[in-house]
Amino acid sequence: MSQTEAPPAPERAPAPEPPDRSSGRRAVEGIVALLVIIAVLGIVAWAFVWMRDTEANRALVALVAVVTGVGGVIIAFLGADRIVDLLPVGMRESVRPWVCVGPALLLLGIFLVYPAINTVVTAFQGPTGEEFIGLENFEFVFTDPSMLRSIRNTIAWIVVVTALAVGVGLIFAVLADRLDRGEATAKSLIFLPMAISFVGASVVWGFIYDFQVFGEQRGLLNGILTGLGMDPVSWLSIEPWNNLFLMVIMVWMQTGFAMVILSAAIKSVPADLLEAGRIDGASELQIFFRIIIPSIQSSIVVVTTTMIINVLKVFDIVFVMTNGGSGTEVIAERMIRWFFRNRDYGKGAAIAAVLFVAVIPVMVWNVRRFREEEAIR
What we know:
Number of strands: 0
Structural class: mainly alpha
Strand content: under 5%
Shape: globular
Distance between the termini: 85 Å
């Protein structure tokens, strides 16, 4: 006798879920964090405007700058990080890097990208930066005798300063690496000029090149000449050699930088490789040119591109020593002169645009070399 199955028990309706109060609290926290960020940005903006007041106490201005700058960045970052924590789990890791990089990108856009675009636009405008005049400013750059002379001088600076600074720095790096004792002291003395600004170095070398028409000679070189019974020389008025005398100042400053970088590269060359070359009968000169130089080629490229960029920007030495006279003009000095002293914003912007274009190939070359080396590694 079969038994009848009992009817299934009726399903109970699921109990209603309690209201998610955490979502409301998270929304409130996000709003509060956003308001804090807005308030901090408002305070920083107000402080920036207030600090421009020339009658404000300088010590108080410095204190406000430190407090609002450092404190504002910390509070804004913590607030933004808190907002990211309140986002859905799937979005947090994709948004968080932009929170860290975003302020830097914003500052780059404000202080680098926008000025570059504005400079290019101004290069096609007149002296006041209001009327459009086409390519007249660029025609001036490549036809004016003073500008052509500055371009030639800048090319000479690039060749001479880069070659001398890198070459002498490499020689010093090799010689210092062979010292048994006193290597740190020797490198410190050679690197010491790097601690001096271009203006300070120009003042120092001004006492070396100084020439007095009347009275006793105060310059070191002319003091030596007069002590030997020779006539003093106006070193910075002898064209075109006065450009070379100015280049010596930058070589004196940059040699220490090249030496430090190249010395570190030389020390990274495997000792086994050098020893194998000596065992095979290679001379020290052959080891230097056929082993050391190829091994540190990437460092030489980095130092060379850095030197070229620094030379393209050189202004202080020429401005302090000769004020751009006696045929010593360079592109950066012409840019400053036309933009700030002659108040011709169009011509100054055109020179800046040409200078910017001149830097691009150097940077492209450096980036390609870096990628090639990374591919090899």
